[in-house]
Write a structure and sequence with these properties.
Order of helices and strands: HHHH
Distance between the termini: 38 Å
Shape: flat
Strand content: under 5%
Radius of gyration: 19 Å
Number of strands: 0
Number of helices: 4
Largest sheet: none
C-alpha cells in the first residue's frame, strides 16, 4: 500500500478483518433511503443574507480553500452540522 493509513482507518480495517461488520438487510432499500436523505439535506431552496466580520470571512475562505470547497458551501455545511448536533 502506497499511502499510510491514519489511526481511524487502521481501526476500521482491524474491525473489518475481525469480522465485526455485517451486511445490511434490504441493501437496495437502504441505499435508496439514504440517497433520499442526502438529496433532501443538500437541497438549497432558501437564500439568506448575514453580516460577518471581514476577519471571520477571510478565515472561512481560507478554510474552504484547504477543504477544496466553495466558501458558501462550507458555511452551509457548518450550519447544517451545528443544527443537527444540537437537535441530536
Amino acid at each position: 500500500m502506497k499511502n499510510k493509513l491514519d489511526k481511524e482507518e487502521v481501526e476500521l480495517l482491524e474491525s473489518i478483518e475481525k469480522g465485526e461488520w455485517q451486511p445490511v438487510k434490504n441493501q437496495e432499500r437502504e441505499i435508496r433511503k439514504h440517497m433520499d436523505y442526502a438529496l433532501t439535506s443538500l437541497k438549497k431552496d432558501k437564500r439568506i443574507n448575514i453580516r460577518i466580520s471581514s476577519r471571520d470571512l477571510e478565515l472561512l475562505q481560507i478554510k474552504a480553500l484547504e477543504e477544496g470547497l466553495p466558501y458558501q458551501t462550507l458555511i452551509s455545511s457548518v450550519l447544517h452540522k451545528y443544527i443537527n448536533s444540537v437537535n441530536a
